[in-house]
Amino acid sequence: MGFGDLKSAAGLRVLNDFLADKSYIEGYVPSQADIVVFEAVGAPPPAELFHALRWYNHIKSYEKQKASLPGIKKALGKYGPADVEDTTGAATDSKDDDDIDLFGSDDEEESEEAKKLREERLAQYESKKSKKPAVVAKSSILLDVKPWDDETDMAKLEECVRSIQADGLVWGSSKLVPVGYGIKKLQIQCVVEDDKVGTDMLEERITAFEDYVQSMDVAAFNKI
Q1: Which residues partner with 188 through β-bridges?
Q2: Quick check: 178 and 126 in contact, CB under 8 A?
C-alpha cells in the first residue's frame, strides 16, 4: 500500500489514478488522511493530472481547519492503492551518534536500492492499469429522414435506412411524424460508437437512397 514518492512524477501519477473515482483519500469527507498526503505532495500537481490537482485545490481550502478534520494521522505509506508497495521509509535507518558514517556511502547505496524497488513497483502498477479495457465513448442520435412527397413508401424508406450496417452502429425505435400536406417524416433513433460512426457517414449513406430520401437532419445528439 502507498503512493511511492509523491515528489516524483511517477508518484503523482499513482495519486491521480487513485483519485479518478474518489473525492478524498479515505471515506466521503476530508480527513487527516487528506492532510497527510497533501503535506507530502507539497505543491500543486501539474494540470494534466487533473484528478490530483482538483483534490489538491479542494484540500487546500481546508488549510485553516485542518487540525479539526476527523481521523488520526497515520504514516504516509498507510494510504493509497494496495498494489503499490510502500517504500517511503525504506532508506531510513537509526544509528548511534558514535557510529555516523561521514561519507554516507551505506545510506546512499540503500537509498538507491529503495529507489530502484519503488520504480519497479510503480512500473508494475502502470502496466496493470494500461491493460484495463478502455471506456468506449458512445452517443445517442435521433435522426429526421424526410421523403420527397406524400406518395413515398415510408415502410420501404425505413427498410432502406435500417439496411445500413456498420461496426459501432445500432438502430433503435422509430416513428412517423407529420410535417404537413399529408407528408410524414421518419424519426429514428440509433446508438453509435463515436470513433467508428459519425453523422456525416450516416447522412451520406441514408441520402444515397435518393428514390425515397430527400434529406436527413440530426434532431438530437446526446453523449452516453
Answers
A1: 143, 174
A2: no
Residue 175 has φ and ψ, to the nearest 5°, of: -160, 160
d(C-alpha 30, C-alpha 17), whole Å: 18
Q: Are 49 and 40 in contact (CB under 8 A)?
A: no
115 forms beta bridges with none
Torsional sign, CA 71, 76, 78, 80: positive
Q: How far apart are the first and last CA of the chain?
A: 34
In whole numbers, what is the pLDDT of the chain averaged over residues? 84
φ, ψ (nearest 5 deg) of residue 134:
-70, 150
**Any idea which residue has 465513448 for its cell?**
137
CA 59 to chain centre: 21
Per-residue pLDDT of 91-132, as tens digits, reads: 444 444 444 444 444 445 557 778 888 888 888 777 776 666
CB 143 within 8 A of CB 187: yes
Confidence (pTM): 0.43
- Give the range among 4-18, 76-90, 135-149 with minimum mean pLDDT: 76-90
